[in-house]
Amino acid sequence: MAKKNIEVSLVSVNLVSTGTKRKESRHALTATLVWPRPTIARKESAFPCTLEKGAADYSGSPWHETILFKETVEGTFGLRMELSESLSDDAIASFMRTFEGLFLQDVGTMLGKTNLVLGDVLANVFTAAYKKSGTAPPPALVASGGVTLEPADLRDGMTVEIPLTAPVSLTETKVSGSAADRGTERTTKVLLRKGAANGSVTVRIALV
Which ranges in the chain belong to alpha helices (H)? Predict the structure, then answer.
């Protein structure tokens, strides 16, 4: 069974729809290594990202601001990505604190303030975190996807593009009219239907 030590770093995020019409949006991205090696079911990393018109380029950013994982992989494994809906700065900070408080004690380490490397958690890390903490409902997801990889196929410096789809239909609601007239009217526009392609996340693999 092939075995390699790898680093996985974020290169870019590109979404068809962020679920909002704002040019700039802030999201929580979670990356998951699925069964990186026998006895290790999952490894998670949480990362706050700012998108401009649905895109972010990290190719020129320092290593410590883009690193997601430094792991040993053995046998077939998966790499999944999930992006939350657009969140406020306070919500992003709260989200990262939730992860830190729930899982950091199990990992025993924190790689700076940019991203947190987390221990094994349930399949949907957003729901798991908020369910266990008893706080407000978890943020909705606007994009998710994954790929299956083989250690034997990994080359130093290679990039991997992870296609994303919309896990739910992304909509925009507009309110028109006023109570002084005949009342308000709400119209909903579908920005992207459930299951539709919603961009990709690209990562770089380094052999270490």
Answer: 89-107, 125-133
Q: Which residues of 67-100 are buried (b: 16+ CB within 10 A; e: fewer)?
A: bbbebebbeebebbbbbbbbbeeebbebbbebbe
> Which structural domains are found in the chain, ordered by start?
3-207 (2.60.40.150)
- 62-100: pLDDT as tens digits: 999 999 999 999 999 999 999 999 888 777 777 766 666
Tokens of 151: 């250690």
Cα 78-9-20 angle, rounded to 5 deg: 85
3-state secondary structure of 24: strand
pTM of the full predicted structure? 0.78
- Are 6 and 13 spatial neighbours (Cβ–Cβ below 8 Å)? no
User: Within a 10 A sphere around the Cβ of 202, how many other Cβ atoms?
Assistant: 17
